[in-house]
Amino acid sequence: MTKVQLKGVRKDFGAFTAISQIDLDINSGELVALLGPSGCGKTTTLRMIAGLEVPTYGHILFDDDDVSEVPVQDRQVGMVFQRYALFPHMTVEKNVMFGLKVRGTPKAEIEERLEEILDVVQLQQFRHRFPAQLSGGQMQRVAIARTLITKPSVLMMDEPLANLDTKLRGEMRRFIRELQQRLGITTIFVTHDQIEAMELADRVAVIFDGKLAQYDAPDALYQRPNSVEIADFMGANNIFAAQISASGLATAAFGTLQLDRDIVTVREGAGRILLRSEAIDLLLEEPDGENVIEGTVEGREFFGATVNYTVTCGGEIITVNEQSRRLVEVGQKVWLRIEPRHIWAIRDDA
Amino acid sequence: MTKVQLKGVRKDFGAFTAISQIDLDINSGELVALLGPSGCGKTTTLRMIAGLEVPTYGHILFDDDDVSEVPVQDRQVGMVFQRYALFPHMTVEKNVMFGLKVRGTPKAEIEERLEEILDVVQLQQFRHRFPAQLSGGQMQRVAIARTLITKPSVLMMDEPLANLDTKLRGEMRRFIRELQQRLGITTIFVTHDQIEAMELADRVAVIFDGKLAQYDAPDALYQRPNSVEIADFMGANNIFAAQISASGLATAAFGTLQLDRDIVTVREGAGRILLRSEAIDLLLEEPDGENVIEGTVEGREFFGATVNYTVTCGGEIITVNEQSRRLVEVGQKVWLRIEPRHIWAIRDDA
Amino acid sequence: EDAEANAFREAFLGGEASWEDVSARAESEGTVNLYYWGGSDPINIWMDQVVATDLAKLGVTLNPVRITGTKDAIDLVLAEMGSGKGLGEGSVDAIWLNGENFATLKRQDALFGAFADKMPNSDFIEWNAEDPRSLLNLRDFGVETGNAEVPWSGEQYVCAANTARVDRADLPSTFAELKAYLEANPGKFTYVKPPHYIGNTFVQAAIYAHNPDGTGAEPFQQSIDDLGAEEMARLITPGLEYLKSIEPLLLGGQSGNARYPEDNGALDGMFLNGEVDMACKFGLYAVATGLNNGTYPEGAEAFVFPEGNMIKNKNYLAIPANAPNPAAALVMANYMTSVEAQVSKLKYTGMPPGVDPWKLSEAEVTALTEASPGLIGVSQADLDANTAPDTNATLVDVIEATWLEYIERDSADDLSVIVSRAVDNLAK
Amino acid sequence: MLLIAGFILGPFIPLLIQSFAFRWAWPDLLPGTWWLEQREKSLLPLAWDYVLSPYSRVWEATLNTVFIGLVVTVICLAICLPAARVLAREKFRGKSAFEFFLSMPLIVPEAAIGIALLMIFIRLGLAGSYTGIIIVHLIPTIPYMIRMLTAVYQGLGTDFEEQAMILGASRWQVMRMVTLPMLLPGVVAGALFTFLVSTNIFLLTFFMGQGKIITLPTLLFSKIAGGTLDASAAGITLVVTVPGIILLLITERFIKEEAFGKGFGN
Amino acid sequence: MTQPNTTELARHRRERMMMWLQLTPVLLVLSVLFGGALILAVMQSLGFAPWFGVNTFPDFSYFGALWGSWSFWQSLGLTLYYAIVSTVIALVMGIFLALAMVRMFPCKTLYKYLYKLPLMIPYTVGIALAVIMLGNGGMISRLSAFFGFIGDPSEFPQILKTHYGWGVIAVYVWKQTPFVTLTIYAVLLGVGRETEEAASILGASKRQIFFQVTMPQILPGIVSSTLIIFAFNIGAFEAPFILGGGFPDTLPVVAWRYFNDADYTLQLQGMATVVSIALIASIILYSYLAFYRRYERRIGRN
Ligand SMILES: Nc1ncnc2c1ncn2[C@@H]1O[C@H](COP(=O)(O)OP(=O)(O)OP(=O)(O)O)[C@@H](O)[C@H]1O
Ligand SMILES: Nc1ncnc2c1ncn2[C@@H]1O[C@H](COP(=O)(O)OP(=O)(O)OP(=O)(O)O)[C@@H](O)[C@H]1O
Ligand SMILES: [Mg+2]
Ligand SMILES: [Mg+2]
Questions:
Q1: Residue B159 falls within a domain, yes or no?
Q2: Domain boundary among A223, A257, A275
Q3: A71 and A155 inside one domain
Q4: Residue D68: which CATH number?
């Protein structure tokens, strides 16, 4: 559909700088998540792309055309607001038709597209209800239908799932992904939930404090974060200070680990290593081979599908996440093993 | 501390029955979670125990004494509200002291207990702030401290973590568990998040539609749900219709599985079997032995720590959850293996 | 009923009580509640600064009750009488009134009695009915006072013109000349709207001047019962027709909607701003006073209009039948008619004396003359030569109603019908 | 926006000039003679001298206005607080009818109420007394007060009170230590608005005051009833404006449009 | 199943009693004062006034006389004219201003102070300002003369003291626009700007956004402020009394004149006038409300 580019975009609100500098290329048909803590400027970025705010500096390009001067109404974008912003005085049907009606689309065509979209979002039976009579998930779908019916070339969603409960979130996630894949619309959505970002997006743009911190595919982001902050934000819990040698050996308080030098880009010096808690094997007997750490189970948290163990190893606490097929008792002496390719390292000066 | 019992409790609001019948025994010092979908009556139950509502029928007993006639003020219970209900016009200190002050506790004692509790919740440095100047987690801790300082015999918490973000939730969960274990106060908390219930509680009471559906330890609930509804609510996604034979063989659309007859109570007849998605091994080569199902990977969802595969097997879709150490490609032919003890069965007429 | 108070009244009216008795009783009563229209600040100031001080010397505290309409005080007296409160028990000791309100009290028998000629200072007032100059002392709007009220202030209806805009030579002195002037200068005149008394008075003057019998004010001294509706209609028709004829020539009349100011304040404003060239109101010294306090334009001067029909009247003090402090009220009434009070009143308010100069000593007359703000544009002799008395109170109501119906509401009915209807309505 | 500012503030300029004028005739843009030039010559106090003198009764009217406003506000608060609490918290049959009845005084002209009550009040001896005026002022102020307080209570929710009860506070302690302090901003806003409404009421005051009790609006009315404005009337107009300005400065801090909206947005 | 807990029932009953107890003061004050006043007004207009020695209840002659005269209908027309025109103008201006106020502009804080000023001061002040500005000898007239447009005060268009004049309306508008602005602004704040933004993204023009999205959402505010100011305008006395053009007067002024007449029976006539005002106001407002309710039901609000 449409390729979206942000070039050196900055946004000030009076004396306050909400976005200090963002460059972002979004390919046609791509699904990109804007991820970041509250107040980092995600909504502001979306609003600038939509045309609801004008960047203080920089340009926004749609298919290489600068759209800075194009008013909202003519940008052919769609936006689903966090709190849906459904028109409370219109029925579901009227809400959905609104975008076509105001453009003066012929009646017959409106009807046709309405039926089609209501089928897609499975709201046929609620068409005469008012927003106040819908559940959160239904409202969400109305908001999406209302946007999609106008066939926007860029679809934006601001925390589309923030107000839904766990189960509904899952459903809506699947729904959005499917839809996006089917229609291939360039989609940008905002979230502060890293799981959501990783599940849905082709690429994730992590924004910290009005700056683009990393822009990468979900697994890259998760496995190879640029900085400790990103790692922390992505939910990593095993981050340890270590001295990395030229030969790819990392020496931490609990021992020395071999890194995979094809993956890890850090060459030498003080840094941090990241052990992904689900990539650690918890063994009850001492195994052979390298990358083995000895420790004692200190605590256990049962989450249903998975169990978290906290293991003390040489003064550090390593969290191990395991599927809950067996339960290891607290106090048990254990050996942890981790493969080199599951270790990531970051230089302290990164 | 105090044993809490609900005997035949029912609550009507006018013509509407919020709680139709609940019997619940909570042991002294136990941590019980009330789990259930929105509107099922969790808050109402708590409010009855606290004395904010009077049951229409039935009795509530504290240590075998009927407390129906005891007014709220004299029940010696503590309750942490969902949105904390911190008094905005009082500092942290004043908020925390409130309960003692209104009881006319001597000043010296108030001081002493205040210091103690502020240390416990680690809020010493925020003591002169107003609630508006605190973060969510800090407010939460103030609310807890305010309740604990009165040494309640029963502590209740209404969705204490609902408003916190993922990271903070984890921290607070650990904090609450630790505290409860240390003080040993009988604690009841409400949640609609099954993960939270399972992580925190000694026992979980699942409430559906104003009725107690199951009351059990977390792992029992997760692994041996009473009904399909509970299984569904607890996040099970592999539920299949099956015919169960007297010999413990379950025949489903994708094949026949052997059940562990020591665990499964269902003897014969039509029913459902539950395969826990994280207990299924995904093998790329056909293994030996029983309980193997052949299928093809249809889809993959990457969640960071884990990966979900949807596998079609004989017309049914089985979800397999695996730690994301390797990634199996979509379209790959695979074999699923599940141990009998990880299969649970429910009779259709249960 | 307060027996003691009644005894006092009998004694006083019967001439058995000496003025010393009255004074003594007044001192014991202590206060006097005077109800009067509080809309004039100079009067209020005079009351507070001079009257209150002087009365205090006589042992009486003045309680000035400033009402927005004299009728309120009448209502109060009547309501209290109705609930059985007699002499010594009401709340109103004295009312400043005239005309219709006095007529009402008299009709309802709510007056203290014939006290006016029994006070020491009544010497300054002409009571001799033979002397035509006594007319205003004995009759109030044609109603016989029966000495139940005492005149304490005089007034004359005088018109002023802005000589900066009108040449003195062009000033009209008759109604015909006024009309001619208006035809030449449309919109430059208007009069206060009846039923305001200043407006009524202008209408009366026009009626006198157009009296078909040429007898001027004379027939209008009778009550409506004596005159009869038909005769009344005949007498007033030419005057009202004249007024109707000049309506399109009045201020705003060119656009079909003549504007009549609600009160003299509004008229003064129009006069000051040059919206009108002439303004008529009660106020012998109005020009001087107006120039003194900035409400009149600098070129303002009085002139004689309408010749022979410049209505003159008096204001009175009445004591109601249920006055709580009748003796104090008498003391106050006596004080008000003293030369001293008249002088200060003239000085403060520009209201001409209510006492009769020919009954005063030379020194006293001089004092009054010196206190007066002075006449501008006319002489006292001009004024004295053109006076006319007020209309009988019962006729005023009819004239008022007729004006409203005929001029304001543009009734198409014949004037005689309107008048008889008004008479009927009032009789109800 | 400038236009609007002109529309609101503009008229005050000639008013100010007029208050210092002695003689200001058409078509002069500034007075021909100023008050100060004539001040010594006049026997009577002019312009501001007059306004500030007791004869103008400005001081008396101000005191009356403030006194009546305060008493009305206090009474109104006292009777509306409990009712607002019920309306915000409870559901009961006939509630919407009840609420409609409570806002009726807003849509029935004051004249009807005032005149009808006048006769009875004269009978009862209440006309022309403070009591009478205060009582009639309750009629138009209650609906405003109820609406604003109900919104305030709704905003408060029951959580805080229940929490305090669980912490062991008695009803009275809850009221004193939690409910009242938390309601305070809303109550202050409601009280200010009620005070404002009360001090603005003309017709009812005029009828019930019977000319005996004057307030700023009735005083000003009698000054300008003729449709002209002299220096002293202009001065009084300015004086009457002053409490409004003071109130404006206070209310801006307390009356948040948001709170107001909850009361009137429906 | 056991019996319901008696404490629950007793408590429920006690709570209901407490509830009504709390409502009683307001209920009492309003029913006695307001309800009583209404009943009294109606009874007096039907000839019940024993305090004047008049008691011919029920006697419809006062209404008969009133409604039978042409001038009553003229007055009614004039009253409605003032009320409707000024309500509409104040509404339009108020809505416009409120919409402007949710946007950012320089000096907004100052402006937020300023616009409320008329709200804070009595109508009489507004009247005084109208007199000094709009009168034939007023400031605008003087300015016109200064610039040579007119040579005499009478050439200035008559705004005050005339029928269907703009003086009365100007005062109402001056005083009520802030009230409407405040109400609508508050509602707008509650509504937020999101729906408007959503509509603009969906391609709606400014007009479409206003009429199809904003307007329906602020309608409750519009309706309640209309009710309040219209009712006030129809019953207001001071402005038409001072600034009006004399006969025919607006109904409240007519009533006033009756009341100030020396003739007591005219007071009952005045009462009939007042009751007529109330009646007409209620009919108009009620139908307005009913109309709005229907609209609301149509758009699904309840
Ligand atoms: N109109 C505005 N005026 C002033 N500051 C603003 C405005 N809009 C946003 N900001 C500020 O800009 C920063 C970024 O805001 P933004 O809404 O983009 O955050 P966000 O990343 O969407 O956060 P959240 O997850 O909480 O929605 C915030 O600090 C916010 O306070
Ligand atoms: N005071 C009340 N009056 C009438 N109905 C009520 C009242 N309180 C609760 N209910 C109803 O009782 C039911 C149970 O409410 P409750 O608050 O206990 O649910 P919950 O399980 O806490 O739900 P949630 O997770 O949404 O908080 C709901 O349907 C609710 O609408
Ligand atoms: Mg945001
Ligand atoms: Mg709840």
A1: yes
A2: A223
A3: yes
A4: 1.10.3720.10
Q: How far apart are CA B124 and CA B143, in angstroms?
A: 14
Give the span between the Cα atoms of D110 and D102, in whole angstroms: 15
Contacts of E195 in chain A (CB under 8 A): 85-88
Q: Are residues A131 and A27 in the same domain?
A: yes
The residue whose CB lies within 8 Å of the most ligand 2 atoms, and thus the one to mutate among B35, B40, B189, is: B40
Are residues B284 and B176 part of one domain?
no
Q: Is residue A228 part of a domain?
A: no
Residue A337: both structure tokens together: 């093993």
Residues 50-69 of D with CB under 8 A from E: none
Mean pLDDT, to the nearest integer, of C363-391?
A: 88
- CB burial readout A234-246, b (16+ within 10 A) else e: bbbbbbbebebee
> What does the DSSP assignment read for C354-384?
SS-GGGS-HHHHHHHHHHS---SSS-HHHHH
Query: Rounded mean pLDDT of C276-304?
Result: 88
Whether residue A345 has its Cβ less than 6 Å from ligand 1:
no
Q: Judge whether A342 is closer than 8 Å to chain B, CB to CB.
A: yes
Among the listed ranges A217-221, B113-117, D40-44, E61-65, which one has the minimum average pLDDT value?
A: D40-44
Kindly state whether residue B219 falls inside one of the protein's structural domains: yes
Interface C–D counts its CB contacts (< 8 A) at: 77
> Which residues in chain B are contacts of D170 at CB distance < 8 A?
73, 102
Chain B with chain D: Cβ pairs closer than 8 A? 58
CATH number at residue A331: 2.40.50.140
Residue A39 DSSP one-character state: T
Beta strands in A178-231 (DSSP E): 186-191, 203-208, 211-216
Do residues A30 and A130 share a domain?
Answer: yes
pLDDT band of residue A167 (cuts 50, 70, 90) is low
Domain that holds residue A274: 236-347
Let me know if residue D207 belongs to a domain.
Answer: yes
Percent of chain B scored above 90 by pLDDT?
24
Q: Are residues A145 and A11 in the same domain?
A: yes
Q: What's the C39 CA to ligand 4 centre distance in angstroms?
A: 68
Q: Between chains, do C295 and D32 touch, taking CB under 8 Å as contact?
A: no
| Number of structural domains chain B divides into | 2
What are the φ and ψ backbone dihedral angles of A229, each rounded to 5 degrees? Answer: -60, -45
Q: Do B85 and D159 touch (CB under 8 A)?
A: yes
Q: Which of left, alpha, beta for A63 (phi over 0: left; psi -120 to 50: alpha)?
A: left
* pLDDT by residue, tens only, chain D of 266 residues: 777 778 788 888 888 888 888 888 777 888 888 877 777 777 777 778 888 888 778 888 999 999 999 999 999 999 998 888 888 888 888 887 888 888 788 878 777 788 778 777 877 878 888 998 999 999 889 988 888 888 888 878 788 888 888 888 888 888 888 888 888 878 888 888 889 889 888 888 888 887 778 898 988 888 887 777 888 888 888 988 888 888 888 777 666 665 555 555 44
Could you tell me if residue A311 is inside a domain? yes
The percentage of residues in chain C with a pLDDT greater than 70, rounded to a whole number, is: 100
- pTM for the full predicted model: 0.80
Task: Identify the nearest ligand to the CA of A15 by its number.
Answer: 1
Grouping H, G, I as helix, E, B as strand and the rest as coil, residue C422 is helix
